[in-house]
């Protein structure tokens, strides 16, 4: 047997069992998550549930909240938390972060910067003062890395409150001027003819799916749209992206990179195929920046759609 052939034999027939043994040992040795390592990484105490899930929590006592005229106690629903569960090659984290309106951008940016996904953004109450929202996050990886990532999100929120103890009542950017965003510019960037009404320039992109065994489309609400108001120098945009599962994170990241505020992430329907998610957004900036920002999110969505074949 030639030397090269012998070497190949050793690598293939002896190397693979050794690799398998190492993976098996990893699985056996790490069948549980060490709560102490997560607690150290997150900078807080950790508890362990009977089924082995490690949890950390942060009650939002730093801002007084009233709901429907009464004081809201953190234990009644103002608790930020994260839960860590063992998976074959590491851990999975899921969590819910209590955020006030001026904290959402910072929390979301920190989540993305630290490898987490944002999986939901919505309200839990009516008539709450100040307005309270909940940002859900998720991720997979090494337990201590996930713990550090959650800490980064919570630290970003805390820093907002250190700078401004009382939640803001607005984003602070200059409002729209009394003019109209040029529809020609919108058409040029999007390659679509917009609708114009009452000084608002709006583009709408339909999509199709199945629901209750029948095909549904844009006229039934399966649309991405953006409405631009104001003028060239000072404009506003609001809108809604319809996204399949694999498109959610690229769209959110692109909107935030463009400086556009994500104000909601949720579903609109139940039982549709494929499952669709919707994110609502708001922005203030020069008109061309907003138009190109929304277009960048559309491009990110198309790129992942082509890559995944959806």
Description:
- The protein is an alpha+beta fold.
- It folds into two domains: 35-163, 2-Layer Sandwich (Yope Regulator, Chain: A), CATH 3.30.1460; 183-308, Alpha-Beta Plaits (2-Layer Sandwich), CATH 3.30.70.
- 34% of the residues lie in helices and 32% in strands.
- It has a six-stranded antiparallel sheet. Strands 10-11-14-15-17-16 form a six-stranded antiparallel sheet, covered by helices on one side. Strands 4-3-8 form a three-stranded antiparallel sheet, with no helix packed on it.
- 29% of the residues are buried.
- The model is unreliable at 2-14 and 16-29 (pLDDT under 50).
Topology:
Elements: H1 3-29, H2 35-42, E1 47-48, E2 54-59, E3 66-67, E4 70-71, E5 79-87, E6 90-100, H3 104-113, E7 117-123, E8 128-129, E9 132-141, H4 143-163, H5 183-190, E10 195-197, E11 200-206, E12 209-211, E13 214-216, E14 223-230, E15 235-243, H6 248-257, E16 261-266, E17 277-285, H7 287-308
Antiparallel strand pairs: 1-2, 2-5, 3-4, 3-8, 5-6, 6-9, 7-9, 10-11, 11-14, 12-13, 14-15, 15-17, 16-17
Helix pairs in contact: 2-4, 3-4, 5-7, 6-7
